[in-house]
Amino acid sequence: MIDHISSPKHNEGIWLWLYKILAGLLVIVVLGIHFVINHAVAPSGLLNYEDVIRYYKVPVIPIMEGFFLVIVVTHSLLGVRGIVLDMNPSQKVRRAADWIFTMFGATAIAYGIWLLVVLANR
To answer: Which of 3, 27, 32, 56 is the least crowded, having the fewest Cβ atoms under 10 Å away?
Structure first.
């Protein structure tokens, strides 16, 4: 029997909460695909540099890896934000944390997408 059903935290909108739940499920699915392709299919269990470059030439791969990047970054930062919300911060601290998480996430995603494009164009 389930004693506690997950629900949004105080100051966490329903849409962010639903996204966090959905992103968690998608992380598991895409991570599974990622591991199978990068470790189970690779002859030695790991892809070398040439294999990675060849792998990224397949058009769907950079899209899938970019999708994975966005899901992992946003899901993890929403999780850390949830920890911050558990500490019941003031509205000023919450807004500052939201801004920091947003800027960090946007920077990480932008860098990751740039790196995907560079690898795909080698």
So the answer is: 3
